[in-house]
Amino acid sequence: xxxxxxxxxQLGRLVIEALLKSVPAAHIVAAVRTPAKAADLAAxxxxxxxxxxxxxxxxxxxxxxxxxxxxxxxxxxxQHRAVIDAAKRAGVQLLAYTSxxxxxxxxxxxxxxxxxxxxxIEESGLPAVILRNGWYTENYAAGVPGALANxxxxxxxxxxxIASAARRDYAEAAAAALTGEGHVGxxxxxxxxxxxxxxEFAAEVSRQSGKTVVYRDVPEADYKAALLGFGLPAELAGLxxxxxxxAAKGALFDDGRQLSALIGRxxxxxxxxxxxxxxxx
Length: 281
Hints:
Helix content is 43%, strand content 15%. By secondary structure, the chain is α/β, with parallel strands linked by helices. Helix 2 (39-43) links the parallel strand 2 and strand 3.
């Protein structure tokens, strides 16, 4: 039995889709806060259980668990601890955790809780695999409609190169770790095969859309202020601005190609994700 936490989230749904390619639906558990949101998964035979990060009773008969990191920034650690403790009580054979690229040395502000969670997993003694996910290309592609409207992409990443991959690539990596052999004790640094600067990203948006879009690099504080102006919560705006600033220093770049090796194919070209965003713009 494979349990996926946060199964109705953007990554969780893709992980379940990937698992369904090789695992019987009845052997997959979607652990969700609101079961009604997973009615489509239940209709396909996936077991849907009500659970959250503070009540991990759904793990009782699990053999493998994917702990998708909580989106409650600043509150992740106690939530992750609850799942880890429950997994230990359940005697799971494998705990997989979605961390962040180079969590142990990263300068990203969001890396702290990931590093602490990795430490909790190590201290638990559970058989585990750490999936250190790099940036999702969708993080930037989501801003394509606004870029078209404003003629610009704003950020603080300077000339930093970003080795992102599509969310579905990371989902397939999680499924591979849960269903394959030899992953216990491994830590994978996962990132896209290709990389780009935000200026190159803007140029690709221009090329595919036929509209002029430029990249405007601004100080981190100004970028945070702009994000706040768009209505983002202060903590999220700060983390996004920090992530851009750290990207300028190389925090989102990796050329080890461990992601493509794990999924057995090249990662999705970032230009393809730009194209998908433009179709929806």
